[in-house]
Amino acid sequence: MNIFRLVADLMHLGSILILLLKMFTSRSCAGISFKTQALYLIVFVTRYLDLFTHFVSVYNTFMKIFFISSAGYILYMMRVPLKDTYNKHLDAFRWEFLLGGAGVLALVFTHKYTVIETLWTYSIFLEMMAILPQLLQLQRTGEAETITTHYLFALGAYRALYIVNWIYRYETEHHVDAISTMAGIVQTALYCDFFYVYFTRVLKGKRFKLP
Amino acid sequence: MGADAPKDEL
User: Fold this and answer.
1) pLDDT band (50, 70, 90) for residue A101
2) Radius of gyration of chain B from its Cα atoms, rounded to whole angstroms
3) What is residue A27's DSSP assignment?
4) Is the Cβ pair B3, A63 closer than 8 Å?
5) Which of B6, B7, B8 sits opposite A120 (nearest CB)?
6) What is the rounded distance in angstroms from the CA atom of residue A40 to the CA atom of residue A102?
């Protein structure tokens, strides 16, 4: 564990808390893509199957359980108590392509053809693209509530810090995983446009509005 | 490296 990874994980945890705070305070899930949230649940479940086979640390186990259960809870919130505030028409990304595309990539690139390893690779490629329905929704509406942009910023910062963590690990431990590094770089790149608007508008106290 | 490396990241 290094400081970059620790801060990244805490940003990830923080992003989920911000999203829950948004839902609780506004009693609404407007602006949030159900598809992106559902993809994250699939990502966590397929990646953390090793909870049953491979113990890393109490921290690691706690975080895995938190990510799976919070993702499930967010879907429940969007489907049950906040159902009426969800706008299906804005959440129009064809996510079948993401689910299928990640499957093809996992079968081509997995390190080993075992069920757990292939599902792990699937989760990496699915996470790489899981934010796309949310970004499409943002593009369609052209603006977002400030708290939603803080959620997205924390999520993007978590990914960016993982890249710094991999550089650090390569230098200090000569540890590198080609699949997670490549997918992580693509995933972070998807946030570039968002980061630009966030830094130039939201942090200056203005509303998030696409040009 | 790769599959033989312990998966210690989240």
Assistant:
1) very high
2) 6
3) S
4) no
5) B7
6) 13
